[in-house]
């Protein structure tokens, strides 16, 4: 479940989705960064991106208490990348969550689908200035490092560089 702009969204994790998140967790570079699957409190929302990356030396700027759990709140400058893997939630992720993350100031947001990786950059109060669509075989630069990922023909993520 996620709390997004006052709405509770039910989240179901299918096979492709779960496999892709696992690949991302294995492939995203960790030099100077921490890759996590923790809830990312954003404004009044509690979205659960599939993974996100923060600076390894970042400290939380606060906490939010919810359902008996304390969640760390992070400065947008310390959040290097937010990623949602979208199978059945493509429309919500490309629209509602892009607005939410852009408004929060997170510099880069990816939506990974079976057909493409959509990279959102240039956060503004209404979302992001730019969205680039990377198709099968194209290299996607990982924003906080010199590495690249590629969405393969069989919806498999491949790493390039380091």
TrEMBL record:
<dbReference type="GO" id="GO:0004519">
    <property type="term" value="F:endonuclease activity"/>
</dbReference>
<dbReference type="InterPro" id="IPR012296">
    <property type="entry name" value="Nuclease_put_TT1808"/>
</dbReference>
<keyword id="KW-0255">Endonuclease</keyword>
<protein>
    <submittedName>
        <fullName>Uma2 family endonuclease</fullName>
    </submittedName>
</protein>
<feature type="domain" description="Putative restriction endonuclease">
    <location>
        <begin position="2"/>
        <end position="139"/>
    </location>
</feature>
<dbReference type="Pfam" id="PF05685">
    <property type="entry name" value="Uma2"/>
</dbReference>
<dbReference type="InterPro" id="IPR008538">
    <property type="entry name" value="Uma2"/>
</dbReference>
<keyword id="KW-0540">Nuclease</keyword>
<keyword id="KW-0378">Hydrolase</keyword>
